[in-house]
Specification:
The complex is a heterodimer of chains A (115) and B (111).
Chain A: E1 5-7, E2 10-13, E3 19-24, E4 31-38, E5 42-50, E6 53-56, E7 65-71, E8 74-79, E9 88-95, E10 105-106, E11 110-114
Chain B: E1 4-7, E2 10-14, E3 19-25, E4 32-38, E5 45-51, E6 56-59, E7 62-67, E8 72-77, E9 86-94, E10 98-101, E11 105-110
Parallel strand pairs in B: 2-11
Antiparallel strand pairs in B: 1-3, 3-8, 4-5, 4-9, 6-7, 7-8, 9-10, 9-11
Classes of the chains: A mainly beta (115), B mainly beta (111).
Amino acid sequence: DAGVIQSPRHEVTEMGQEVTLRCKPISGHNSLFWYRQTMMRGLELLIYFNNNVPIDDSGMPEDRFSAKMPNASFSTLKIQPSEPRDSAVYFCASSLLGNSNQPQHFGDGTRLSIL
Amino acid sequence: GENVEQHPSTLSVQEGDSAVIKCTYSDSASNYFPWYKQELGKGPQLIIDIRSNVGEKKDQRIAVTLNKTAKHFSLHITETQPEDSAVYFCAATYRDDKIIFGKGTRLHILP
């Protein structure tokens, strides 16, 4: 049973470059979440989608960050232009949508380093 | 806004002893409280969760307790083993599908 799949696992790039992170949620899940993890700030929710529609993007730090979910099996998080302070581990998670608050299942993350 | 406080930030216990991690939350409407374990290089993995209509839940060596009145919930690990060493996160729901995480507890199991 495949879990949440993220790619790439590691990304090193120079500041100013565009970065695209990818996520494939668990089949059948209809909520998708993007998180950023740093030592200083812990796990922060950036944006989440229900049924491919962005519901809350209040955690997106700046206009340089954008996220899309063109279909139920794929989402991207894009940073353009990237800056050194964007260096972090980015996680994608998915869950079943419902009023009973279903658990979120995380991928193994993308470790992003901006030089 | 919603806030989840987690203590301690670091915990060292002797192998075989018990470990307890405590969390508090601020939103009285929170009704779902998952706990995650994160190992090095991996994403957080759900280990146990509890809903607001239950005061306690146990799964083998892991138990969670919830005090809704005090807005406290705790994770208890008994008979700790080396593989329990990891970072543990508590979380609480905020609105329908959003959850807020605590800052994490790094648990060290000493031989």
